[in-house]
Amino acid sequence: MLPPGTDLEPKFAAPHLSSYLQDFWGRCPKLVGKYGSSDGVVLLFGLMHDVIFFYMSLEPSTGEVGLFFVLHGICTTADISAKKQWSMRGMRPLQPALTVPLTLGFVLGTSWWLFMPPTVRAPGKETDDLFLLLKGVAET
Fold it and tell me: Does the predicted TM-score (pTM) go above 0.90?
């Protein structure tokens, strides 16, 4: 998809290898900091994406996209807290063979549930182009 010779920063190169939500969202350093997700940043991301979807579709926001980011912020914070509790109790972390599919399943499931419907519902050439791009990415 990227032009030949284009390099990605390592933090964006392999989100499909994320073992936990913190790993997935940690690839976006402004969202997840040292102590977890910042509520203000999560709300800002959600609001920003709701506005983007409004400008793409010229339809009032249903709040699904904003809810996606709020849900992921809450779950990322819970993920970080659980890992800290396991560590304090001397428990080993879960194996990546289990956590990678669970993390990707959660991200893809909530994306399909909350992020994609406004994209599919939105009329217009811009959203048709976006849907074709997403379909092309999914097929590769």
Answer: no
pLDDT, greater one: 119 or 104: 104
Does some domain include residue 116?
A: yes
Domain contains 97: no
SS (H, E, C) the chain: CCCCCCCCCHHHHCHHHCCCHHHHHHCCCCCEECCEECHHHHHHHHHHHHHHHHHHHCCCCCCHHHHHHHHHHHHHHHHHHHHHHHHHCCCCCCCHHHHHHHHHHHHHHHHHHHHHHHHHHCCCHHHHHHHHHHHHHHHC
- CA–chain centroid gap for 107, Å, is 6
The per-residue pLDDT for range 120-132, each reduced to its tens digit, is 776 655 556 666 6
Residue 136 lies in a domain: no
Which residue range is the domain that position 51 belongs to? 36-89+112-122
Question: If you average pLDDT over residues 45-61, what whole number do you get?
Answer: 81
pLDDT at position 124? 59
Output the CA torsion sign for 116, 51, 55, 13.
negative
Structural domains counted in the chain: 1
